[in-house]
Amino acid sequence: MKMKIPKRKLFLLIIFAYVAFSLYAAYNVFFSTKVISRVHRVVKKETGALSDGVKDGGAVAPFLARDWNPWEDEQVDYNSALTQKRQAFKQHLGRIDQNQPKRYRVQIWGKAAIGIYLWEHILEGPLNPTDQIAQWREGELQSGKIDFSFYTGPAVVQGHVPLDMNSLVLVLNGREQQKVSYSTRWLEHVQALVQSRTVSHVAVVLLGNEHCNNGFIAPYLKRNGGFVDLLFVVYDSPWVNDKDVFQWPLGVATYRQFPMIRPNAQLITSNRPYLCNFLGTIYKNSSREILMQVLKQSGLDKECITTAREKWLPQETADSLKRYQTALAQSELTLCPIGINTECYRIYEACSCGSVPVVEDVLTPGNCAAGSSSPLRLLKAAGAPFVFISNWKELPAVLEREKGMSQEQRVDRRRRLLEWYASFRQQMKERFTEVIEETFFKSG
To answer: Rounded to the nearest 5 degrees, what angle is found at the Cα of 6, between the Cα atoms of 2 and 7?
Structure first.
């Protein structure tokens, strides 16, 4: 008689066997220390560190890493190769950077009208907007190794200029007390920027006092314990040493909207109907009175354009500016009598139009340098092709020689004057750029 196993017991037996097998499998996976196959194990080749090894019949069993990785060697090699490639690429970029010329950034704040002469006439930079009476004007250019940016106009006020570099050129007017007070406030503002380490290098381009009395800026110069590294000053200041103080040209009267004039064929070759011109203010007991008397007495006033006024006007009307520019362009010579200082805007404006300046080469009262090369030290050093006279009584002889010149000679002289003036501005541009680069970026 066959023994039958109840289905219930058979089912429970199967369940028990399954559970037992599962527990056994789990034990082998998670807790067993048996040696796995040679294909999948990670063997420690060092024989010194066997603290986790097992012994089998007196022989040392291979060490099994707890966190083993079958691709560990390949991963290490890959990471090493990748690191080497990254380093090689970085060195390559470094060599490229070394071969490229280093560039520097300098910002210019134009808070005097001579800033326009610096930017448009010397550096030849663009200005936007082109409207000369705009409240805010700006521009950018490259000169040498320096990237310049320029801001000017009434809306350029303290604390509201986007200063994104630590090197600054400040253009100021120190000609009279009201201008000195205004300039001092700007110097104090920049001094605060230096003290807060927002700005590291400072240069000032200064329209100096016509008597060369510029004492207000002396305490701010670095040589006197201040923060101004460089000073470019107009007129023959005795401070000029070509180390930290340099002479700067007065330039044209940009505050009267005298424009940048580009030479053209007509400016050079045209027949000019007048020998000379003088349009200006006649001061009492000045050499200008003598000039007008000499012209009238010699009868040469009919061959020159002359317009005299008794009172100086700070601004030109559109008509008066046009008449003045026309007089310059239609005259062979421009008469340049002294004012408060020998250097005047008229000299540079005449050069712009190819009209040779006839300059009264006389020192004016004040504290300007009185060396053998003064006055007009900067222009003489540059070889200015002017006519220099010490007394206006010499003028008739100058004009008689002028009358004897041929048109060809006059055209050649005009061309040489315009070429000299362009070369002079280029020299000033290069000098300005090189001095700033040397002082700001290479002196340390």
So the answer is: 125
Structural contact between residues 151 and 163, judged by C-beta atoms closer than 8 angstroms? no
Edge-first strand listing for the sheet containing 137-143: 137-143, 146-152, 104-110, 167-173, 201-207, 230-234, 245-248
Per 3-state DSSP, what percentage of the chain is helix, strand, and coil (rounded to 5)? 40, 20, 40
Residues 6+ apart with CB under 8 A from 129: 137
pTM of the model: 0.77
The secondary structure element, H or E, covering residue 44 is strand 43-44
Backbone angles phi, psi at 163, to 5 degrees: -80, 105
Phi-psi region of 285 (alpha: psi -120 to 50; beta: other; left: phi over 0): left
Tokens of 395: 């003028």
Q: How does pLDDT run across 197-235, given as a tens digit for each residue?
A: 999 999 999 999 999 999 999 999 999 999 999 999 999
Q: Is 57 exposed, middle or buried (0-12, 13-18, 19+ CB in 10 A)?
A: exposed
Distance CA 78, CA 75 (A): 5
Distance (Å, rounded) from C-alpha 24 to C-alpha 308?
Answer: 121
Cα separation of 433 and 441, whole Å?
A: 11
Find the farthest-apart pair of alpha carbons in the chain and give their distance in angstroms, rounded: 167
Phi/psi at 59 (nearest 5 deg)?
-95, 150
